[in-house]
Design brief:
The protein contains 12 helices and 8 strands. The protein is α/β, with parallel strands linked by helices. α9 links the parallel β7 and β8.
């Protein structure tokens, strides 16, 4: 292991799905360009969710068609079902599509029903169909939601999560994301699961996706780092959570703050590849886009530049 991590900036998708007010296509494109300028090499750009369910992404094709697709930068789109992959393929075929697709499962039946409106068995059938449809034209990122606990069922068996990761790996996923969807993970649970997956799937990129609902996201990220994880999701300003029209959980459901995560990693001597001045500018642009101060501590206090 080297002290270098890859952080996927998720403001434009997981962040904006929580917002009740539509952010303009032009603003989204500008923000995405700013993220790439700051040095992010993986950027969650949008979702092919049905606009009736998640209206924030009604402009998915326009956003992906409006950004500059740069060498070494992968824009990712979420695909909850085969119809979403068909839309992704149509954009890809016209030269304006995503480089990566996220394919979703939930580790509990109840969350699957609420979030994806199907059963786990049927969602896995969908995922298999989506992999076939994608036909090797995208990097595929498997996502296991509620990997550390479900808002409806409580504790989730780590063995079930490990089985889901193995199933994604068998389907050829390039990476698998573990989502702490409502922020119930603890450092001990994170260390246990990431260490287990490092042993059973050496070489598989397992992505840590922590929400800060209970103020533990940065601590959990450090636990994942110390357990071998080198791939993280975060969102500028700590925004995001469940779609605004799908209510579950309580409190602030947002992601770990990119500013805070980058600042801590850099101060620890971990190379994020992110330009801190450009990140600060992107942070301000996100606050301007949403018209309010967001949740990053570092955005108020400034970046810590010195390594420990």
């Amino acid at each position: 292991m080297t002290d270098k991590v890859t952080i996927c900036e998720c403001f434009a998708r997981d962040g904006l799905q929580h917002e009740p007010t539509f952010v303009s296509t032009e603003t989204k494109i500008s923000l995405l360009e700013g993220f790439a300028d700051a040095g992010f090499r993986r950027i969650e750009a949008t979702s092919y969710s049905h606009p009736r369910w998640v209206p924030a992404f009604a402009d998915a094709s326009e956003v992906l068609g409006g950004v500059v697709h740069r060498p070494g930068v992968a824009y990712k789109a979420t695909c909850p079902n085969p119809r979403a992959v068909e839309r992704a393929l149509a954009d890809h075929d016209r030269g304006a599509g995503a480089e990566e697709l996220s394919l979703l499962v939930s580790a509990s039946e109840s969350h699957t029903e609420k979030n994806l409106r199907t059963s786990r068995a049927q969602q896995w059938e969908r995922v298999e169909s989506m992999v076939r449809l994608a036909g090797g034209r995208f990097r595929l990122i498997g996502v296991v939601s509620v990997a550390f606990g479900c808002p409806f069922e409580g504790q989730v068996d780590p063995g079930r999560v490990a089985d889901d990761v193995a199933r994604f790996a068998d389907l050829g996923a390039d990476a698998v994301t573990l989502g702490d969807t409502t922020g119930v993970a603890t450092p001990a649970a994170v260390a246990g699961l990431f260490s287990r997956l490092e042993r059973t799937h050496p070489g598989l990129a397992v992505v840590a996706h922590f929400h800060n609902t209970r103020g533990t996201a940065v601590a959990n990220a450090v636990a994942a780092l110390e357990s071998g994880c080198r791939h993280f999701d975060s969102a500028l300003g700590g925004v995001g959570g469940h779609p605004s029209k799908i209510g579950y959980g309580a409190g602030l459901t947002g992601n770990v703050c990119t500013e805070d995560l980058v600042s801590l990693f850099e101060a620890m001597g971990v190379d994020t590849g992110i330009d801190l001045d450009a990140l600060a500018s992107a942070s301000l642009a996100c606050e301007k886009a949403l018209g309010r101060p967001l949740h990053s501590m570092v955005a108020r206090a400034g970046f810590a530049h010195s390594a420990a």
